Amino acid sequence: MSRTILPSAATTGRALLVALLMLGSMPAHALFQDDGARKAILELRARVDQLANDFEARLSRLEQVSHGQLQLQSQIDAMRQEIASLRGQIEVQANTIAKTQKQQRELANSIDSRLKRLEPIEVTIDGKTVTVDQAERRAFESALALFRSGDFNAARGAFEAFLAQYPDSPYVPSATFWLGSSQFALKDYAAAIETHANLVAKHPESPRAPDAMLNQAYAQIESGKKAAGRQTLQTLLERYPSAPAAQAARDRLAALR
After folding, report:
1. Contact 58, 12 (CB under 8 A)
2. DSSP codes joined into one string, the chain
3. Taking a C-beta distance cutoff of 8 angstroms, is the pair 189, 219 a contact?
4. C-alpha angle 192/195/198, rounded to 5°?
5. In DSSP terms, which residues pair with 121 in a beta bridge?
6. Fewer CB within 10 Å: N-end or C-end of the chain?
7. pTM score, two decimals?
8. Partners of 128 in the beta sheet?
């Protein structure tokens, strides 16, 4: 874009001053000698007036340009402030979004972890692989840990609670066996006899059945029912002759004779 170069106020002022000096340097009698002189004076005055008008007009344009520049600079400053404000808002929003995304990831991981704790898992019970709930497994293992620590009374309560809560669990034969063992350890022989007898009656195919019969026989003998104990041992040998508990049954029968 081309730029219009305006005369400076100083230049225009100097031109006006020169014209006035020229007018003032002429003798008074010469100014009014003839019509030519008067005409020259009038033309000079007109020229001076024109120069003055041009000066005022150019000065006004300069002022307008300066005022426009000030307005433009003010607008530029305002836009810069607005941009800085918008950048600040963007930064705040970006931080908020980042925090929200982090919270969502943490929540998703927490939910995933909880779901995994609830998902059924495969375990091996008495040599057989089965699927159980994780809470079910934890309840059984907790009860068994009590028995192994020697807290038979707490173990008895834990196994009773387990069997009541999970009556169809694959752990039932094993939990029943350890319940009977806890009762035997507490010398509650009547309860031990009943618990082991129920296990054998309901789960004769369980690997725990031979040991349950052996414990049942021991409980019978300890409670003074030796004849019943010998009969249980004999039945054990007949039903499970190759089971590890069978050898213990033979040794106990020999001792009873």
Report:
1. yes
2. -----PPPHHHHHHHHHHHHHHHHHS-HHHHTSSHHHHHHHHHHHHHHHHHHHHHHHHHHHHHHHHHHHHHHHHHHHHHHHHHHHHHHHHHHHHHHHHHHHHHHHHHHHHHHHHHHHHS-EEEEETTEEEEE-HHHHHHHHHHHHHHHTT-HHHHHHHHHHHHHH-TT-TTHHHHHHHHHHHHHHTT-HHHHHHHHHHHHHH-TTSTTHHHHHHHHHHHHHHTT-HHHHHHHHHHHHHH-TTSHHHHHHHHHHHHH-
3. yes
4. 145
5. 132
6. N
7. 0.58
8. 125
Tracing tokens 């307005």 back to the chain, one arrives at 71
Residue 34 token pair: 């003839």
Terminal-to-terminal C-alpha distance of the chain:
128
Q: 80: which 2 tokens? A: 């810069």
Lowest mean pLDDT among 1-15, 178-192, 199-213: 1-15
- Residue 216, amino acid: Q
Strands 121-125 and 128-132: antiparallel
Give me the pLDDT at residue 15, please. 55
Share of the chain above pLDDT 70, in %: 84
The structure tokens listed for 141 are 């293992």
Q: Which residue has the tokens 């039932």?
A: 172
